[in-house]
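Our collaborator T.R. sent over the components below with a one-line note: 'Predict the complex.' Nothing else. No constraints on interfaces, no templates requested, no preferences about which chain binds where. So this is a plain run: every listed entity goes in together, and whatever single assembly comes back becomes the starting point for the next discussion.
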Amino acid sequence: MTATTPRPASAEALPAKPAIRLGDLLFSRAALWSGGLILVILAAVAIFLVAQSIPALTADPADFVGQPASFLDYVWPLVFGTLWSAALALVMALPLAIGIALFISHYAPRKLAQALGYLVDLLAAVPSVVYGLWGIGVLAPAIQPVYSWLVDNAGWFPLFAGPVSGTGRTILTAGIVLGVMILPVMTAICREVFLQTPVLHEEAALALGATRWEMIRMAVLPFGRPGIISGAMLGLGRALGETMAVAMVLSPQAIVSFALLQSANPSTIAANIALSFPEAYGVNVNLLIATGLVLFLITLAVNSIARYVVNRRKDFSGAN
Amino acid sequence: MSKRIEVNDLNVYYGKFKAVEDVTLTIEPRSVTAFIGPSGCGKSTFIRTLNRMHEVIPGAYVEGEVLVDGNNLYGPGVDPVLVRRQVGMVFQRPNPFPTMSIRDNVLAGVTLNNRRISKSDADDLVEKSLQGANLWNEVKDRLDRPGSGLSGGQQQRLCIARAIAVEPEVILMDEPCSALDPISTLAIEDLIEELKQDYTIVIVTHNMQQASRVSDKTAFFNIAGTGMPGKLIEYDDTSVIFSNPSVKATEDYVSGKFG
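Returned assembly:
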């Protein structure tokens, strides 16, 4: 989320005005309006969220469904579930995305690489409802025996603590579905950045006697680092806000638990809004919108952190 | 640590296209050999076959042999990675790794293959290599800054420092000064004079004055026409090539009648 303030056109500052060409004027105005529109849309969403959240923030928590002790008590398990499922998705999908992208950009023969790239893009076009159905219908039953085995044999490890879910519809399944969903966008971005690695730098590494993997570590990955981070953040943003896949896979409870394989799982903010909104009334509508505001702020924070990370080593970015 | 290079009947192909035909020459140790010739005559392609860098391009292969101290670079079981550690290369445009500091750039080749080096050894090597490349005094107080912040000429000397840090037998330079201003060019040429004491140097250049200034021997490459392979026309002492060449095409080229 970059907010670029348009610079004042320098032409206006000069005393002797050069001839203004219609095309230049049209384009500069069009660009200005488009840029400004982003700010307007963002502001409109933010104002809506804040205005509609205020009643929930000031209301008596006893009016909320389920009578939580306070707004924070209500939203905290959802925040946790949102971050936890998105983090699971990212941890599983990011290495895979980098691997696929490297294979496409530096290992695969050209024809295979093109076909693979096309397939990955196709994966991005599958609607999230379909992923949700796949999660319930295929992944959960198929992976349940694995979960049972993990609980039996590695149950001492806190993440794999029992009792195991009988349906396989756990937060880990939701994380896997989310991971598959965010894989295409991350792969596509990583692949594009890796392909842009200057041949000069690749040759520099090879001429020093680097193997292909060392060349990738020396030239491709450092050059692609900002791109990898941007891709991860785009994926994370999608995972944080993803609604249907999570809502379909999980039967949510208001708990905070790191256990991956149990049948009681925290829900996410977006899934909770989708599931609760049809039956919400009165101040509960405002409550749901307030959780939406929290999600908005989380996403904003994630993006800001990513931008900070990318900018921190700007001198070394390869852009100069 | 410098070694003799013998090239016997070398043909270079890009797929079906024959880029260089039938080159045979011998490069003496501790000497500077310049390759000159018009654009597209295959001199850059040929210099890249001396450390197997042409193989980076898909479909490129050679026939014939290149012997470095009697060992064929294209023999069975020879690893191109090891060849490139023996035969270093400096490119047309300076290419320090932008994500690395000056110090890390110098050490880039040394730390390959998980070779470990103690910090004090690394410090010594960085100083020695940068001094070898005449860059130490200019960068000694900013070794942890990115290499991309240096001027073009400094970057190119950083690349030379990086190449000599791994102590190769041979250094190949593919038009090392063509992206530099005259002052930086002079600095590199002086450096080549010094490096000659320890290394075998092969340099491709478009600048005939440069070839006559820095090299002991000169090879003139030419091409009969577009789509034809480049050939080695004449190879002799630089003074002979520039004063009394035996082939008419060489004389025309060095005297500026074409090219």
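Summary for T.R.: The longest strand of chain B covers residues 17-27.
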